[in-house]
Sequence to fold (181 residues):
Amino acid sequence: MPADDEITALIHAGRVQEAFERLMPAYRRRVFGLAYSLLRDRGAAEDVAQEVFVKLWQALPRYDGRAQLSTWIYAITRNTAISAMRKRRRSLSLSDPVVEQEVESRGAQPAAEPADDALWRAVAALPDKQRQAVTLYYQDERGVEEVAAMMGLPVNTVKTHLHRARAGLAAALGAAGKEDS
Fold:
């Protein structure tokens, strides 16, 4: 990405604030998208995205260029989201009064979903690693090698996740298509 090269050059020139000002709009959607794909909660993903950009601001002067800028940002995002998931698991319980109140306020009404988002519902239903691989590969248009680096997995493992995800999506969308007819 040419923007990444410009941002990296600014960092190495010591113009960190200018680099950050270019980095924010370039990565805002992607950081939020990755956080959301892992957390499946808009509010939590927004919190994680904000925390990621604070971490980036603090760490940007120490960015050494060993990894691509995008890979480095995605690793920070993934690790921050995983930490948030762990905190959430420890803090949430079905007997928690806040959780009970939320369940009661929602009642048994299903969430309204537009008919044209069957693909994204199917992607959201994939196992975490498959969902993350699909999001990075198709939505963010990353290569398999880059996805592997971002996820901290071997290339062949990412290929396996993508293969299984495609099979799962085909089955889910095929079943949904049969129900609609």
